[in-house]
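ARCHIVE CARD
SHELF: 3
SLOT: left
DATA:
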Amino acid sequence: MLAVIDTGVFVAGVFWRREPHQVLRAWRSGLLTPTVSEQIWDEYKRVLQDVKQEEGFATDLSPWIEASKVATLWVTPVLLGRSVCRDPKDDKFIEAALAAGARMLIARDRDLTVLHKPFGIEIPEADKGDWDKRHYTEAGAVRAHVWPVLLQQCRYFNMSSQSRKQISGGSSLLRVS
């Protein structure tokens, strides 16, 4: 599944082990493919470095930065004629989703989550538990909202390491615990 991950979700997923981390686990397991543009990738790198410095974390960011460069779908954004978001700087996420044909933008930023399916793009809130109240349609099939699906399918991390290797094909670009 193609999805755009806003910077707040990406950064929180790297440093903390709450719902945003589940998104990165889903990425690691191949359940979703993040879509990025040059603007999004630059923001990921900048904010990761800022948070690391502000919080005094010793986290090695290089695997995350490298993965966000090579294990993602890169797009040239579809420029909007006018701003869709309250904060025009957040339009880059909508533009990337449109360019990729992604039907999901996973966000924490209220300037994005207040939008109501712009251009048909679902925007679940990464920190809310209300995902079971909404549905989205992809490839003609109606499915429950992405969060229960991702969380349920991420349970494979509780399997033995041998089982995980069989599922992921033995690749381990990211180590997510």
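SLOT: right
DATA:
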Amino acid sequence: MAEMISETDDGMLNDGVAGGITPPASISVKGKRALRSGARIADGWSMAVTTVEEQLDRAEAGHTTRWIVEGIIVEGGATMIHAQYGHGKSLATVDLALAAVEGRPWLGTYPIAKQPVLYVDEDGNNDAEMNSRLMAFQARKNTPLYFLLHQGFKIVNTKQRAEMIRWCGEKGVKLVIFDSLVRLHNLSEGNADSMKVVNAAIKDFTLAGITVVILHHSNRRGGLRGSSEIGAGYDGIYKMEKLDDTTFRIVNEKARSVGQDGVWRGCTIAVTTDTITQRLVLDGSLPLDDEDGDTPAVLTPEAKRLQKRTLMREGVLAHLKEVDEMTESALADALGNSSRDKEMFKALLTEMETEEEITFEKRGKGRYYRFASAGFDSESETEDIE
């Protein structure tokens, strides 16, 4: 007999009966574990079949693709922006949120309907990080931009998800930004069944008419980190790249729909600062495409160095979040550092210690590093970040 799934009081799933709903017989063991980790199987589902005539009638009545940002962000859809650490994705989405609540163009160029926004930030280190961005953008106090900061929200938790959707309905919020995907669940990003569960949870928001923008981390090759299933449920996927300290590029990697002006290929962005405010604007001095239509390799030597350092930093954090502790040499080996990277690596570790991102304990001649929140108190529990 197929294994049955039921929902517990905290919104999680365990073995048992759930309204007679039985998971598919073909679901893998890992898939069942993913379901128990916070997914739900929708009860009361029924088929809603339409005909060609009905679909054409809907199209004639204006039931076609609607946009939050024309050609870029689909209204009531899911959009993903991914980048490596420090490559501007949070900067761009804070600007998006402020543009929406202030009724100004995003990136100084793209019109966006004025509306309230919920920004869920589980990725930042502390409130001060968001506050500094708001101050830099000279955000207005009387705007309907709401924040849920570092409260452990899990999109795969049925009750938390339902409460957020209910709250959005009360406040009239139709745009929610999540930063970032890895913090929204406690499943394995590399497992396809687990990511199907996460995508199904995201779908609950879009079915409620809420536009979702989710930030995600790129892998070392610049692609989406984790299972290929991660990108399956999105209407648009955009990659951000850092070109230098003040310039970024957004590249369109996937678009299910096309705006009135055709396919939006992307843009380059400059961070401009004056005595009043900081703004993101399109930078016409850097072409998005070369003459052959391909994205050019315009990284300067300094930008390449910053990129390598960013990847190195992201790698240190990723490894230390997965294990109790690592020696300096073990970290270097895990990152595949060459002898030329040794000086950069040591300087980076010193900086991360100063900023209290990591901590270390000296034993004999070696240093043993840990993720800062774990500490070295044997009686304390290590936080399960992933």
